[in-house]
Amino acid sequence: MKFGIIFYAVLGTAGLLTGIYLLHYSFPVSIIFFIGTFINGIFIHKEYSIHKSDKIVYDENTLPDEVVVKHSRSGRIIAISIYSIFMILGLFFLYSIIVKSDSQSIIILALAIAFTAYFIVKIFKEIKKISKIVISIDGKGIQIKDNPRYLWKYIQLEKIIVKRLVSRESKHDYKPEINYLYFFHNDEKIEINIEDFDITDHQLSQVLKIFRARYNSNQL
Q1: Would you say 105 and 97 are in contact if contact means Cβ atoms under 8 Å apart?
Q2: What percentage of residues in the chain have a pLDDT greater than 70?
Q3: Is the pTM of this model over 0.85?
Q4: Whether 179 contacts 154, CB under 8 Å
Q5: Strand 177-185 to strand 150-151: parallel, antiparallel, or no bridges (unpaired)?
Q6: Least CB-packed of 3, 57, 168, 187 within 10 Å?
Q7: Mean pLDDT of the chain
């Protein structure tokens, strides 16, 4: 965590100084570096938040009757910021083409408009994700998005599993790890990637155990 924070802090500082320097030459380009600095700040906050969240312990008395899981807010802000960089580049090219007003640039103009519009749409999609509930867990069962709720009565082997991504082309021993919510509902296997959510794998594991215990106690 400390190495990650130091790395993003150094990178963010470099981006900020570069942005200030470029203010004298090109305002749109300097904005891109300022956005890059902002993104690094979000990464620092995310690293710290993950470290702090791992210490949170849920128990029967503190867990509410329903736990909702949404997309990571910091992840959405980072995605929106990155898409904003490409949108600014698209607007910059559009402005340059319009100023030239060259009839031979119609195709390039259409491509620039399509490029800019694509990232504007991506930004709006990320904004919508911020408030969207992806997973809902309560005393009845587990609901994924707007699908029918999976009932505890038919759920088995609910847990968090880790998958390691292995590439045949990779020459390194490092294998990225992806966390999944995993369970069986009747004979159907359900796997949901939980890497970019506002809850850690450790927290979600605690939530599953408590709700399972609640359900089992109600059956006695």
Answers
A1: yes
A2: 85
A3: no
A4: no
A5: unpaired
A6: 168
A7: 84
- Spatial distance between the Cα atoms of 38 and 80, rounded to a whole number of angstroms: 11
| DSSP codes, 7-31 | HHHHHHHHHHHHHHHHTTT-HHHHH
| Pairing relationship of beta strands 155-164 and 133-138 according to DSSP bridges | unpaired
Mean pLDDT over residues 13-41, rounded? Answer: 85
- Phi then psi for residue 45, to 5 deg, are -60, -40
Count, residues in the chain: 220
The helix (run of H) or strand (run of E) holding residue 86 is: helix 73-100
The residue among 94, 140, 134 whose CA lies nearest residue 113 is: 94
CA dist., res. 212 & res. 220, Å (int):
13
Residue 2: count of CB within 10 angstroms of its CB: 8
Task: Identify whether the C-beta of residue 119 lies closer than 8 Å to the C-beta of residue 83.
Answer: yes
Write out the two tokens for 49: 């938040």
Distance CA(90)–CA(109), nearest Å, equals 10
Residue 133 bridge partners (DSSP)? 70
Q: Which two tokens stand for residue 12?
A: 């963010």
Cα torsion for 177, 158, 68, 215, to the nearest 10°? -160
What are 133-145's pLDDT values in tens digits?
999 999 999 999 9
Residue-wise pLDDT for 46-63, tens only, equals: 776 665 666 667 778 888
Query: What pLDDT digit, counting tens, does each position of 181-212 carry?
Result: 999 998 899 999 998 888 888 889 999 999 99
